[in-house]
């Protein structure tokens, strides 16, 4: 059923009526993995990991936040110094070209942390839209050191996701937890010492990213999804009350007119699965029903992955990566509730 006129997509700066509620539907209630699927660690995640797969775009100038507000899916105009934003940069068709964690280091400087492989093309595309805005975009990856903090290594322990604290010269962005363990992103000038704490292998951090259920877009899946296909509206990655940005009408239409047919799920596989690989239902091996979005080796064996699936296929079960001799997938519980339109 279509929403009343007050909730339809607008691109004139007026606000949407978000009208959302927490869904009681858990997409992982189907084909649930068993206790012996080896996806869980025998010891809790804990420690500090260097993050070599991420890059940093610096946006400087008095219009830095205003410029990003008009380009990304989240509200940067009202971004406070104690906040961060999960956001996406979309094509005109509403497809994700990059995802970011963005925050201010000063009133005129915003940092965007994204997958390193997407930084060059994303920097080029975003720079094309600067025009008369007083903002300059540069690759600042070499100027900053990035670490992932888990468990007791997180300053202040568990905090709401997308809150930010300054620890000396470092910015600490609190993220969604993984298997109950608090997580945070540490970003500091490269000249600063590394955060103190036990070392954590970067592979364990990558696994925690998957277990958090919040995907980071990478090259193999560029322009494969609208944000809701990765549950971005449920984890703070989309603001439906802000003004125009590229792809906004597609995102709003998907949300308010009930056209969304895919969602993100966490899954476990006994063997390796690759990002970008197609997922099939055993009931129909001719047509893919989903895509592997992000994957990492599970500490107990096999691989865990974030997969974007047709909702109907997730409900039916019998999922596998690849049509011929496919690797079976078992869906796991999502660690957060979904939002659904009223």
Helix share, percent: 10-25%
In DSSP terms (H or I, runs of 4 or more residues), the helix count works out at 5
Mean pLDDT across residues: 88
> Strand count, sense and closure of the main sheet?
6 strands, antiparallel, barrel
How far is the N terminus from the C terminus?
A: 10 Å
Spatial sequence of strands, sheet with the most strands: 12-15-14-13-16-17
**Helix-strand sequence:** EEEHEEEHEEEEEHHEEEEHEEE
Structural class: mainly beta
Low-confidence regions: 1-37
Shape type = globular
What is the total tally of β strands? 18
Radius of gyration: 20 Å
Describe the protein's architecture and organization.
It contains five helices and 18 strands. It has 342 residues and is mainly beta. The strands form four sheets. The protein has a six-stranded antiparallel beta barrel. A hairpin with an 8-residue loop joins strand 13 (278-281) and strand 14. The longest helix has 11 residues, at 202-212.
Topology of this protein?
Layout: E1 20-22, E2 47-50, E3 54-60, H1 64-69, E4 84-90, E5 96-106, E6 109-115, H2 119-127, E7 136-139, E8 144-150, E9 164-167, E10 170-174, E11 183-189, H3 202-212, H4 248-256, E12 262-269, E13 278-281, E14 290-297, E15 303-310, H5 311-316, E16 319-321, E17 327-332, E18 339-341
Antiparallel strand pairs: 1-18, 2-8, 3-6, 3-7, 4-5, 5-6, 8-11, 9-10, 10-11, 12-15, 12-17, 13-14, 13-16, 14-15, 16-17
